[in-house]
Amino acid sequence: MNRLILLIIFLLSISKVSYSQYTLDIEISPIRSNKGNLMLQLFDSTQKVIKEEMIPVKENKCLISIENLAAGKYAIRYYHDENMNGKMDTNLFGKPTEGYGFSNNVTGKFGPPPFEKWLFEVSGDKKITLKPTY
User: Fold this and answer.
1) In 10 A of CB 102, how many CB atoms?
2) Whole-angstrom Cα distance, residue 116 to residue 28?
3) Is the torsion defined by CA of 95, 101, 106, 111 positive or negative?
4) Closest to 24 (Cα-Cα) out of 58, 72, 59
5) What's the rounded Cα separation, in Å, for the pair 97 and 31?
6) The domain spanning residue 63 has which CATH number?
7) Domains in the chain: how many in total?
8) Distance between CA atoms of 134 and 2, rounded to whole angstroms?
9) Per residue in 12-71, pLDDT tens?
10) How many H-runs (helices) and E-runs (strands) does the chain carry?
11) Under a CB-based contact definition with an 8 Å cutoff, are residues 102 and 74 in contact?
């Protein structure tokens, strides 16, 4: 009987650890203007989009809270849709004319940085601050 109780306690403790859910708080600032929305995508480590958010800009920043994340590696990309046309606008050469960015505040030279550089670890509740490129 004692072995059964110990086994149940052990299994319950393992399940709590493996199914822990965390909150990711994201602050994106400074944003150039309060016009439009911020469009954000959260990816898992396999480059699958697991969450998409459209957040209004207030006080030249956006605050996003994503709940119920399992421990693991994630990545973020976002852009400031100032004119609310649903897409990231670019100039004749393909350079974005609206603010954009990636997790870890990584930047690319000729296009987006490699996905591996966007990845960050979630192993508990986490807060990150991102700064857009204009």
Assistant:
1) 20
2) 21
3) negative
4) 72
5) 13
6) 2.60.40.10
7) 1
8) 64
9) 555 445 568 999 999 999 999 999 999 999 999 999 999 999 999 999 999 999 999 999
10) 2, 8
11) no
Domain containing residue 90: 21-130
Tell me whether strands 126-130 and 37-44 are parallel, antiparallel or unpaired: unpaired
Sorted by sequence, the CB contacts under 8 Å of residue 72 that are 6+ apart come out as 44, 45, 121, 122
The pair of three-digit structure tokens given for residue 84, joined into one six-digit string: 């609310």
Evaluate whether residue 13 is within a structural domain: no
Question: How much is the CA Rg of the chain, to the nearest whole Å?
Answer: 19
Computed over every residue of the chain, the mean pLDDT equals: 91
**Residue 23 · residue 74 · CB < 8 Å:** no
Q: For residue 16, what pLDDT is reported?
A: 47
Task: Quote the distance between the C-alpha of residue 18 and its chain's center.
Answer: 21
